[in-house]
Amino acid sequence: MIRRFLAVLHARNIEFVQDRSTLGWNLLLPVVLVFGLATVFSSPYRSMFKVGVVSEMASLEDEPNEFLQLRYIDFIKVSDPADALMRVERHQLDMLLDLRVDPPRYWINDESRQAYILERLLGSGADARAQREKVSGLAVRRIDWLVPGILGMNMMFSCLFGVGYVVVRYRKNGFLKRLSATPLRAAEFAAAQIVSRLLLIMLITVIVFVGTDYFLDFRMEGSYLDLLLVAALGAFSMVALGFAVAARLNSEELAGGLLNVASWPMMILSGVWFSLEGTNPIVQKLALIFPLTHMLEAARAIMLDGNGLAGVLPQMATLAIMSGLLLAAGAAMFRWQPD
Amino acid sequence: MSELEVRNLVKRYPGVEAVAGVSFTVQRGQCIGMLGPNGAGKTTTVEIMEGILPATSGEVLYQGKHLDAGFREVAGIQFQSTVLQDKLNVKQVLQLFHRLYRKTRPIDEIIEICKLGDLLSRENRKLSGGQRQRLLLALALINDPEVIFLDEPTTGLDPQARRNFWALIEHIKTENKTIVLTTHYMEEAYLLCDVILIMDHGHIIAEGSPSQLLEDHFSDVILSLPATVWTAALTEQCPFLVLELPGTIEVSSKDVDAAIAWLQSHQIPLAGLRIRPRTLEDLFIELTGKELRA
Q1: What are the residue ranges in chain B where pLDDT is below 50?
Q2: In terms of pLDDT, which residue wins out, B145 or A284?
Q3: Lower CB count within 10 Å: N or C terminus of chain A?
Q4: What angle do CA A125, A129, A133 make, to 5 degrees?
Q5: CA nearest to B100 within chain A
Q6: A12-16, A140-144, A265-269, B75-79: which has the highest mean pLDDT?
C-alpha cells in the first residue's frame, strides 16, 4: 500500500517539476506581486484616512458629531476598542474616536502622518473639545498586511487547479481508467495527489516567503513554526476542495468553471487585497465559508499581532473541519471513469 | 478447467443492449480474437472480463473463480486509448507502473521485448503512434501477467508499425500467455488468433479457429476481374455467383478450372485476373450482410 502510494506521489512530483512553465509560474507570480506591491505601497501618499469610532448608536449615520460628516475619510464602527487601539498602534487605523463619553476622546499615533492631519481637522472646528490620548508603535506597512494575502492567493490557485484540473484531465484522457486496472486503490491515488500538491506548494511558498522577506523584512510578531502550520492546514483544506470538485467530473471546461466559481469569490472576499472591515455584514458572513478567509485571518494574527496557536485556534479548528468534510465528500463522489 | 469462462453475459445501458447474453471459454495459452464493427459489443465484453465494467447479469470466471481484487495482479491490460502523463518520459512511466504490482518482470526485459531502449528519455507526448502503443503494451506486460487483454491495439497505426506490433504479440504468445484481443483487422486476427469470435449487435454470431470458420462456411474461391471487361449481360449468363463491386467484378466458384474456361469461352481478357481464397471479411459480410468496418 505504501509502495503504491509512494510510486504515484513520486510520479506526480516529477511531473510537476518537469513541467517547467507551471513551476516557473508558481514561483514567479507571487514574487512579482510581492515586489510590485511593495513598490506601489512604498509611496507616502494615501488617498484615504481610516478612523475607528466607538459609538452607542446602532449606526454611525445616526451620530450627530460633525467630524463624522467629513468626506474622504473612512469611518468604521468599532465593537472592540482594545483591538482598535492596537490597530492604531500598528498604523492600521489612523485614529480611534470614542463618542460614548462627553467630551469625546481620541487616540492617535504620534508617528503617523495621517493622524496629524486628522487631529488638525478634528480640532479646527469639527469637535474642538475632544480630548487627546497618545499611543505609540511601529507602523504595519501595507506590504506586511498584503504578503499573507498574496502568498495565500498563490496557494489557493495552485491547490485548486493543481489537483482539481489535473485529476479531471487524467480522467478525461483515460489515465485514471488505466490506473484503475492496476492494484492501485482510489484512496492511495487520492492521498498521493493531495500530499504531492501539499508538499510542492508548501516548498514553493517557503522559498518565496524567505526570498522576499530577505529584501523586504516583513513584520513577524509570532512564531514562524505556527505560521507554517497555519499555511499547511490552509493549503490542505484548499487541496481537499480541489479534489472534491474534481472527484467526478469529466470535462475540463466544467471543472475550470467550477474552480473559478470557487477561487474568484475567495480572491475578492477572503481578505487577499483588502480588509472586509466596515463592509456589509452579510458579505462578512459569506466570506466565512471560504477556507482562505480563515487561513489569512490566522496568518495575519500570527504575523502582525503576535498570536500563538491558541490565539488562532478557532480558525485552525474551522480549517480542520472544512478539510475533513471536503475530503469525505471527495471520497464519496470519486470515480475512476466518467459515469 | 478453462483459464477464463464467460457465462450469459449481459450489459444494458438505457435504451441499448450492448452485450446480449454471450458465453464462451478461453483456454490457457490461447489467443482469442473478438471481431466486429463499432458498437458490436466487443469492447464492453472485454471490459467486463477485465473487471473494469460491471455486468448487468451473467458472470466471468478466472480459473473457475469469480474475479476479485487479486485478478488485477495477474491481468495485463491495454485499453483502446490511454493518454499517459505528458511530462513523464518512457522510463519514468515504466517505473511508476512497475511499483504498482507485487510480482513484476524486470524492467530491462520489458524494454527489450517492446523495443523501447532508444526511447527511455523521451517524453510521452513526443512518442509516435506506434511507439505509444509499444509503451502501452509494455505497461500491460510489466506485472508478468497470466492473462493479457489487448483492445484494438493496432488501430490507427501505419502498416509497418502494425506488422512490428504483430511480431511483439507473436513473441508474447511463445511464453504461453493467454491473450484476449479485439480488432477491426481481419489479417491481424487471422495471423495471431487461435480462436475467433465474430460479434454483432451484442451477440456472438460465429466462433472457431480462422481456418475452421472459413472451411465451415466456404468451399469456393474468388476470381476477381476489372469491371471494364464485364457487361451486365455477362452477369445474367454466368453460371457462377457474380458480385459487382466498384471497379471490380468477383466471380465465386468451387471449380477454378471451370470458371476460367467459361471466362475464356466468352472472350473475356484474363490479364487482370486475380484468384484469392475466401477471407474472414467475406465471412463477416456473409454472416451480417455488412462490411466489417462499417
Answers
A1: 293-294
A2: B145
A3: C
A4: 115
A5: A4
A6: B75-79
* CA A128 to mean position of chain CA atoms: 40
CB contact under 8 A, B88 and A183: no
Contacts of B151 in chain A (CB under 8 A): none
What are B102-122's pLDDT values in tens digits? 999 999 999 988 889 899 999
Reduced to 3 DSSP states, what percent helix, strand and coil does chain B have, rounded to the nearest 5?
35, 30, 35
Closest Cα to residue A273, out of A264, A260, A281?
A: A264
Q: Which of A174, A157, A153 is nearest to A165 (CA)?
A: A157
Element containing residue A145 per DSSP (H, E): helix A142-173
**Segment B132-176, tens digit of pLDDT:** 988 998 999 999 999 999 998 888 788 888 888 888 889 888 988
Distance from CA of A9 to the nearest CA of B (A): 10
Which chain A residue has the Cα nearest residue B70? Answer: A183
Q: Which among B69, B79, B86 has CB closest to A178?
A: B79
Number of A–B residue contacts, CB under 8 Å: 69
Q: Does B103 touch chain A (CB under 8 A)?
A: no
Amino acid code (one letter) for B258: A
B84 shares contact with chain A (CB less than 8 Å): yes
Q: Is B125 on the interface with A (CB under 8 A)?
A: no
Say if residue A136 is exposed, middle or buried (CB neighbours under 10 Å; 0-12, 13-18, 19+).
exposed
Over range A178-194, report the average pLDDT.
93
Task: Supply the pTM of this predicted model.
Answer: 0.78
Residues within 8 A of A (CB atoms), B 156-215 only:
none
Q: What's the mean pLDDT in A76-97?
A: 84
User: What integer pLDDT is reported at residue A47 of this predicted model?
Assistant: 46
Chain B positions in Cβ-Cβ contact with residue A179 (cut-off 8 Å)? 100
Contact B96 A174 (CB under 8 A): no
**Between vectors from CA A76 to CA A72 and to CA A78, what angle results, nearest 5°?**
160
- For the range A314-319, what are the long-range contacts, defined as Cβ-Cβ under 8 Å and sequence gap of 24 or more? A315/A230, A316/A229, A316/A230, A316/A233, A318/A288, A318/A294, A319/A233, A319/A234, A319/A236, A319/A237, A319/A291, A319/A294, A319/A295
The complex's ipTM works out to 0.82
